[in-house]
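Quiz preparation item.
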């Protein structure tokens, strides 16, 4: 099966139905054992055109390609934001609630940047709406499996969130060395588990995930 280029087809349907902005939404770091979970948002207005060449779901791109696409993706969407919930919050409230918390933080940032959240439709990758329970007045949210592959706004959000979270983990490697976060970004590689056995957990580890 060939590579699928994301399009604005679904976003244009939502714009035609009355949405002022379509906000692509994707999460990164859900399966990591260290570091935050991140929720990225990319808002596209009605007049958005010309999807950046090479834009893909972040999982389909090398780290070098993601870094190259990051400035193109952030310039292409009208507004973007990434919300984070740290390891202690994941431990305290669980991963699904932490995703909702991170998403709320990202939506709040978009609101402060001038995006009319209640005039928007959020396209959430996957089949589970983790945002609505954490919002006092949720916008319209539509879940869509493979939205990160098919919808350009979600692919952009995916790249933006992945790059920003990766950069945080690379910086954390200097503060808490020995776990190889520059390479594994907090995911549970064999070398990462080996470092845990030798060094014990750091302040960035999700302790409830290590049992």
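Solution:
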């Amino acid at each position: 099966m060939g590579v699928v280029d994301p399009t604005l087809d679904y976003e244009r349907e939502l714009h035609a139905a009355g949405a002022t902005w379509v906000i692509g939404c994707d999460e990164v770091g859900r399966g990591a054992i260290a570091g935050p979970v991140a929720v990225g948002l990319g808002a596209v207005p009605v007049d958005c055109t010309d999807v950046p060449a090479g834009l893909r779901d972040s999982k389909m791109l090398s780290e070098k390609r993601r870094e190259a696409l990051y400035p193109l993706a952030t310039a292409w969407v009208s507004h973007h934001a990434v919300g984070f919930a740290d390891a202690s919050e994941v431990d305290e409230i669980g991963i699904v609630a932490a995703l909702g918390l991170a998403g709320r933080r990202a939506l709040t940032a978009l609101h402060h940047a001038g995006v009319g959240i209640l005039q928007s439709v959020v396209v959430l990758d996957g089949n589970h709406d983790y945002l609505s329970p954490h919002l006092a007045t949720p916008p319209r949210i539509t879940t869509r499996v493979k939205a990160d592959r098919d919808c350009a706004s979600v692919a952009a959000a995916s790249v933006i969130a992945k790059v920003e979270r990766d950069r945080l983990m690379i910086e954390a490697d200097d503060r808490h060395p020995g776990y190889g976060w520059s390479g594994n970004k907090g995911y549970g590689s064999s070398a990462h588990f080996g470092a845990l056995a030798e060094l014990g957990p750091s302040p960035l580890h999700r302790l409830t995930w290590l049992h």
